[in-house]
Amino acid sequence: MSYGILQGCSSHIITMSNPDIKSLLEKLHVDVASELLDRIASGEATSAEISVAVKFLKDNDVTVVVEESKPMLNLVKALPFTEAKEA
Fold first, then answer.
1. Of 20, 45, 72, 82, which is least packed with CB atoms within 10 Å of its CB?
2. How far apart are CA 4 and CA 1, in angstroms?
């Protein structure tokens, strides 16, 4: 099966096979993740970019076990929440 993909703003259509599309999407996924990570790690990420990274993780069902993640534990400790009182 082939799929047509528009290239840029032109009406020129490139036909790609299913394996080609899969490879292209995998590369795009890796490149987006790498760029987001680089921006955040460098300290240059804007709040909008951090929001995009959070959405990217959520959209890809990425979760973390807080007890096993030192950065997450530090974040939880820094948040201004109090523990719920037991009834």
1. 82
2. 10
